[in-house]
């Protein structure tokens, strides 16, 4: 099937702003609903959040969602109703399986500096599973110039943390100027420029906050125009479709 490419620019994202939060949404989220922009593949949420010092999200519930958090700058303190506590920092991948129901809070762990992170949600293979939590550090040297599988549920292709979805995997990389990495081949691919700027054949230049949604992605390479950090979802099914 022919590949399809859709570029979503940073400025097109809906924005939620409060005195302590700036949250930019790649897809419909909360009060920002667009029936033509609810998901891509299995990815429902790609929120680019900045939380002010000493503030954050109080305890709130989730169900039946795989929630992956990737910190770009600062430190994010996590606490949940299962008793898990920890501080997420750049290079530490975190996954929370909401399953049958969980409460959690996310607070800026600094009283002086903001925390900047991307939170991403995919659906699990099954509803009502037991809630779970996992985190694992991915070294800076590993991320440097290499597309690293940091979260995966794809059989035989493990990531640093595990997803309860056998059709999805999240990759990350940090690129120096001029460095290039190949993109996975997949029926659905979501490329998000978390920081910096890159070029992509057939797409052109991409700036911080830009995203590309590929359908029937055939690979290709991304090259950094300046120091950059990328998040790439590889997905082998779409929401609502039977699993292969």
From TrEMBL:
Xref: Pfam families: Pirin
SUPFAM superfamilies reported for this sequence: RmlC-like cupins
GO molecular-function terms, A-Z: dioxygenase activity; metal ion binding
Cofactor requirements of the protein: Fe cation
Domain Pirin N-terminal as annotated: residue spans: 12-122
Alphabetical list of CDD domains matching this protein: cupin_Yhhw_N
Cofactor binding description: Binds 1 Fe cation per subunit.
Record: residues binding Fe cation: 60, 62, 104, 106
rRNA processing listed as a keyword: no
Superkingdom, natural source: Bacteria
Spans traversing the lipid bilayer: none
Keywords: Dioxygenase, Iron, Metal-binding, Oxidoreductase
Assigned protein family: Belongs to the pirin family.
Protein name per Swiss-Prot or TrEMBL: Quercetin 2,3-dioxygenase
């Amino acid at each position: 099937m022919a590949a399809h490419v859709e570029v979503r620019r940073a400025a097109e994202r809906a924005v939620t702003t409060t005195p302590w939060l700036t949250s930019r949404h790649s897809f419909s989220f909360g009060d920002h609903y667009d029936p033509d922009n609810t998901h891509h593949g299995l990815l429902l949420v790609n929120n680019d959040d900045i939380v002010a010092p000493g503030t954050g999200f109080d305890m709130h519930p989730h169900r039946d969602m795989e929630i992956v958090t990737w910190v770009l700058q600062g430190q994010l303190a996590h606490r949940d109703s299962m008793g898990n506590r920890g501080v997420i920092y750049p290079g530490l991948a975190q996954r929370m399986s909401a399953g049958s129901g969980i409460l959690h809070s996310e607070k800026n762990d600094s009283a002086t500096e903001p925390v900047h992170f991307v939170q991403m949600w995919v659906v699990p293979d099954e509803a009502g599973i037991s809630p779970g939590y996992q985190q694992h550090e991915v070294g800076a040297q590993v991320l440097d110039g290499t597309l690293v599988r940091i979260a995966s549920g794809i059989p035989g292709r493990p990531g640093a943390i595990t997803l309860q979805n056998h059709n999805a995997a999240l990759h990350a990389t940090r690129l120096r100027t001029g460095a290039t990495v190949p993109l996975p081949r997949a029926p659905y691919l979501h490329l998000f420029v978390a920081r910096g700027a890159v070029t992509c054949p057939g797409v052109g230049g991409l700036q911080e906050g830009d995203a590309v949604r590929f359908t029937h992605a055939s690979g290709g390479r991304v090259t950094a125009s300046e120091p950059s950090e990328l998040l790439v979802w590889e997905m082998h099914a779409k929401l609502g479709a039977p699993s292969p």
